[in-house]
């Protein structure tokens, strides 16, 4: 039986540090047959992840780009298509919480930084691949939202992730006549290396596992999810 993503090409952003979701998602997609174009802001980081994937037998093309810069996003997509001739799957993983303070203490730069990393980047890369998918007769875009209620001291991040949900549903509507499916995964607290180091938990039974998230992404990317679009799928472990 062929792998469920055999013959597909996936562009995965945010594949930077070891022990993070991006690395795990890329490994899962490659294991299911996809060729990969992976991206991170720092060339050395993305090259290190690419080597790990190649060592495991994956076909990988590594690129560095600032995804809040239109010209760099354009170059990223052009180079990925030049390498593989197409992009069937886009996984928008780049981003993260970097500004943690009360809303009244947020500066204009703080706000723009978080919105840029977590919402503008998703829009720019999605907008960039959309015409190629439309011309090809279809494709899959998978974004990353967040599970649960908004939390204090994360105003811009909360707003950005709410925006990702709205963007997901809007693009799903605009893509439905062209065979483009757009969904989002909404993790809870995840067992990443950085989260474990920062929080030093004694009990992780209720945390979402990176591998579980990766399997949901692979499912949404596959033809098995052909009837799913415009949805936000929580992956919360037992945290609920």
Order of helical and strand elements:
EHEHEHEHEHEHHE
CATH architecture: 3-Layer(aba) Sandwich
Give me the side-by-side strand order of the main sheet: 3-2-1-4-5-6-7
Content-based structural category: alpha/beta
Rg result: 17 Å
Question: At the fourth CATH level, what is the homologous superfamily?
Answer: NAD(P)-binding Rossmann-like Domain
Beta-strand content: 15-25%
| Shape by Cα distribution | globular
Stated plainly, the CATH topology is called: Rossmann fold
**DSSP summary, beta strand count:** 7
The number of distinct structural domains comes to 1
Helix content: 40-55%
Q: How many H/I helices?
A: 7
- CATH class (first level) name: Alpha Beta
Report the major sheet: 7 strands, parallel
Amino-to-carboxy terminus distance? 35 Å
Kindly state the mean pLDDT as a whole number? 93
pLDDT < 50 runs, ≥5 residues: none
What does this structure look like?
With 240 residues, this protein is of the alpha/beta class. The protein is 45% helix and 15% strand. The chain contains seven helices and seven strands, in the order E-H-E-H-E-H-E-H-E-H-E-H-H-E. A seven-stranded parallel β-sheet has the order 3-2-1-4-5-6-7, with helices on both faces. Helix 1 crosses helix 7 and helix 3 packs parallel to helix 4 (108-136). The longest helix is centred in the middle third of the chain and has 29 residues, at 108-136.
Write the layout of secondary structure elements.
Elements: E1 9-13, H1 21-31, E2 35-40, H2 43-55, E3 60-64, H3 70-84, E4 89-91, H4 108-136, E5 139-144, H5 155-175, E6 180-187, H6 193-199, H7 210-221, E7 232-235
Parallel strand pairs: 1-2, 1-4, 2-3, 4-5, 5-6, 6-7
